[in-house]
Amino acid sequence: MKEIRIKDAIIGLGKDKDPLFGSVQYEQPAKANTIVTVQTDNKTGQIPLNQIEIIIFRFDAETFGLIFNYRLFISDNKSFNLWNRQTKKLACHELQPNF
User: Fold this and answer.
1) 47 burial class (0-12, 13-18, 19+ CB within 10 angstroms)?
2) Among residues of the chain, what percentage have pLDDT more than 90?
3) Pick from 26, 35, 50, 65: most CB atoms within 10 A?
4) Alpha helices in 1-99 (DSSP H)
5) How many helices (H) and strands (E) does the chain have?
């Protein structure tokens, strides 16, 4: 198994909950019941992946990634500026590249 660590992410737990900002860590391959460690500035917790609606992060210098329904999606380079503006507005900082 391989450990995945995303160091700067927006973690959405559902529409009735405020997003979390921090890092996530989990073992690959990920399944619905995979335990994800979420670390924010002041708290660390473990959440089953099926309770996380979406994880948004900056994949590298020019693309964004998101994990949705236990699958990884990568943005195209054309939409980078839009993703960057929206995530910067939500997180109050530019997300840092992870890979």
Assistant:
1) middle
2) 85
3) 26
4) 80-91
5) 1, 7
